């Protein structure tokens, strides 16, 4: 029975596809999609290169339908093709998240992003371009995107565009990750966040200079919904100023991650000043972490009863590495009260 059906299909299909538009009363984008499925990779790439800036991926067709074509009416073909292109464009409205990692953006425009009216997450990591303005310029001309998550790490930026995105997203923006490039390119980035994005719950930011930390201390209290704060730096020394950060942290904060080099005494002062009910604390193991640090954390955990876990990062250049030491006995003592496990942040190596 199956073999008979196959025989019938092989005989009927060429006849139906000899003049496919003749059987239709209206245009049909489905026919165009079927023809496109027969294209080779090179032919599909040519569509992209000639202006159809959407990568087309369809499953291979059962037959080579274009080979059956004997004649067609131009106008049904034209209207069917237009409807097919429109259907592809309409898919952009369903895209809510875009992540580009290790991507060459040379001569690439973000015009396509402007079509993603419902885009909520934009993450660009380790991307390259010879001219950032080519990629970012469409945002200046027509940006209606309101993001809830924005990540920019190792990607050339247009400062004006980033400001536009932050202002347009405003109170919708909840998660922000900015590296050294962003902070250096936009000196007023903290003031912009304070003015427009006080609803953020997650902030990961690179600190470049001492004066920037002073600004951070003043602005952090404005983020009353902040739950996670991650600080990265280029081996800055806060000195006696770090313990003052404890006074500034909002009471909403639950996770604090810092890769700064701090003494056990400074850590103790910081935790004493901290009014946030921290549930997780992440510190840099590669800058002289000792049993004394763990004892400070254990005492804090017993006193506050809110700390659930601690973890470690291992961030240090070889020439700046400071040996750390934690005894098994001290670690075992701490584990009786709180968990110890490292964070799973695969993007952290890019900072």
From TrEMBL:
Superkingdom to which the source organism belongs? Eukaryota
Q: Which InterPro entries match?
A: LRR_dom_sf
Which SUPFAM superfamilies does the record match to this protein?
RNI-like (SSF52047)
- Record-linked Gene3D superfamilies: Ribonuclease Inhibitor
Protein's UniProt name: F-box domain-containing protein
Naturally occurring in which organism (per UniProt): Rhizophagus irregularis
């Amino acid at each position: 029975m199956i073999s008979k059906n196959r025989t019938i299909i092989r005989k009927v299909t060429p006849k139906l596809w000899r003049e496919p538009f003749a059987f239709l009363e209206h245009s049909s984008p489905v026919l165009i999609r079927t023809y496109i499925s027969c294209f080779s990779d090179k032919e599909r790439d040519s569509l992209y290169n000639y202006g159809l800036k959407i990568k087309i991926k369809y499953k291979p067709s059962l037959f080579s339908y274009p080979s059956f074509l004997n004649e067609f009416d131009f106008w049904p073909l034209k209207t069917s093709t237009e409807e097919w292109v429109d259907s592809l464009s309409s898919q952009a409205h369903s895209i809510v998240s875009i992540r580009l990692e290790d991507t060459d953006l040379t001569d690439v425009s973000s015009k396509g992003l402007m079509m993603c009216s419902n885009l909520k997450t934009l993450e660009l990591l380790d991307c390259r371009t010879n001219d950032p303005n080519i990629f970012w310029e469409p945002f200046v001309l027509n940006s209606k995107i309101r993001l809830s998550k924005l990540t920019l790490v190792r990607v050339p930026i247009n400062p004006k565009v980033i400001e536009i995105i932050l202002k347009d997203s405003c109170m919708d923006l909840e998660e922000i990750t900015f590296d050294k490039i962003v902070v250096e390119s936009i000196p007023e980035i903290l003031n912009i966040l304070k003015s427009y994005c006080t609803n953020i719950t997650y902030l990961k930011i690179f600190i470049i200079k001492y004066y920037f930390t002073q600004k951070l201390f003043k602005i952090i209290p404005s983020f009353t919904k902040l739950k996670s704060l991650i600080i990265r730096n280029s081996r800055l020394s806060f000195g006696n100023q770090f313990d003052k950060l404890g006074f500034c942290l909002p009471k909403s904060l639950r996770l604090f991650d810092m890769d700064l080099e701090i003494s056990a005494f400074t850590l103790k002062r910081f935790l004493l000043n901290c009014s946030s009910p921290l549930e997780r604390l992440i510190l840099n193991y590669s800058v002289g972490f000792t049993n004394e640090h763990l004892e400070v954390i254990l005492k804090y955990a017993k006193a506050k009863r809110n700390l659930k876990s601690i973890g470690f990062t291992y961030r240090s250049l070889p020439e700046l590495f400071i040996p750390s030491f934690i005894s098994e006995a001290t670690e075992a003592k701490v584990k009786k009260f709180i968990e110890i496990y490292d964070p799973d942040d695969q993007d952290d190596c890019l900072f």
